[in-house]
């Protein structure tokens, strides 16, 4: 009974969301903007369950505790999204500016960006690791969202 109910409701979405799209991209050696990588965006639809999970949490927790839990969960989700946008702006739109926060981070931690053959094109395989870039972006986002960090990270470009 439970199995058939699950197959009729969330099975297809879970199946599509759990496919290893990163592995498919690696095997086919497609670019980052390939359709295979864009299919990985389907994992976001698993968040549709959040409303149902919230209703179940309300049944078992006090109203104040469940509200606090959902508020913190929402805050963490917004902070994650904003950190990803902050990183995206630095890599795609600012094009690894020489005085941008990614260049400064790379120099501070001893992993500077290298340039390809003496040009102004940055080698994306050099520089800080993805976890250190994410932690830095998340730190800036959290300090901005909580309004305790203004002035902690100063702008480095004119744009």
Keywords for this structure?
mainly alpha, 159 residues
Overview of the molecule:
Keywords: Membrane, Transmembrane, Transmembrane helix. It is a multi-pass membrane protein. This is Ion transport domain-containing protein. InterPro entries: Ion_trans_dom, K_chnl_volt-dep_EAG/ELK/ERG, KCNH_animal-type. It is found in: Membrane. By secondary structure, the chain is mostly helical. The protein contains 8 helices and no strands. Helix 6 crosses helix 8. The protein is flat. The mean pLDDT is 72.
Give a quick precis of the structure:
The protein has 159 residues and is an all-alpha fold. It has helices at 2-9, 11-17, 21-28, 35-39, 50-60, 63-93, 101-108, 130-145.
Instruction: Determine the number of helices (DSSP H or I, runs of at least 4 residues).
Output: 8
Alpha carbon gyration radius:
20 Å
Morphology call? flat
Instruction: Classify the secondary structure makeup into a structural class.
Output: mainly alpha
What is the terminal separation in angstroms? 59 Å
Average pLDDT figure: 72
- The number of strands is 0
Which parts are unreliable, with pLDDT below 50 for 5 consecutive residues or more?
none
The portion of residues forming beta strands comes to: under 5%
- Can you give the helix content as a percent range? 55-70%
Task: Provide the succession of SSEs.
Answer: HHHHHHHH
Q: How would you characterize the largest beta sheet?
A: none
GO molecular function: voltage-gated potassium channel activity
Main location: membrane
Membrane topology: Multi-pass membrane protein
Domain Ion transport: 4-158
